[in-house]
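For this section, I looked closely at a protein sequence along with its fold in token form, which I now present.
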Amino acid sequence: MSFLKRLLDFYINSSLHVALSVYALVRMTGYLFQLEAITAPAFFAFFGTVVGYNFVKYDALARTHKLQMRTGLKAIAVLSFFAFLATGYFFFQLERTTRIIAVCFLLLTLLYTLPFFPNRRNARNWAGVKIYIVALCWVGVTLFLPVINAGIEWTKDVYVVAVQRFILIFVLILVFEIIDLLQDDPHLKTVPQQIGVTWTKIVGCMLLAVFVLLELAMTSVAYPTLLLKSGVALTTGLFLVFAHKRRTSYYSSFWAESIPILWWGLLFVLTKL
């Protein structure tokens, strides 16, 4: 049992789980817009997420020598190195325009992590900004990159899905912010810190209602898709409602983050029936 727990912790701490969630959303984009050239963007997003998230999580600590290279962290470093090589490989499988956009998101990630100006904190510590940067990066990587790479027309549906995707990621981050309320620096001014846990849950549920209603703005409403998105909204809403600051980290970092994977998995099964 101890071995399984260590394996699960490594899976989560090495960012493989969050990367699989990103991969699932890219695949969702491929399904929604019938994109044939989806493999390269999907694997670029997967491996790029492993590298990006591990860089964000461990870079600052490593640079200040506060992080000892225990066996688990050495394994994560090795995994990140190979993920970096895979990211480079799939980067060059993308179209030229897509590569330029990908570099823009890379710069945004660096801005989020590294202090570019003397005596200034990085974007991750800018009060109230973190949640918007993360949600924007997720929308960019899981929606904009595959669409641009496929060279399809940017219809109204792309923008509707972009808003839906932003809302979903935003609300999922709210779950994390509630769970991390005791550990977060008060100066971060996360949403629960600013408006309280109760109002955070109310706002999140209202946003999820908008998430579902936006499906009616699509050019053609597919009721199986509407039903699935309603189920995703309900599941996310339940995770938000039952979130509190004394929940274990698994509640958010594993279970809540599994929602995009579950969504893609259900869609995959239903389309094969």
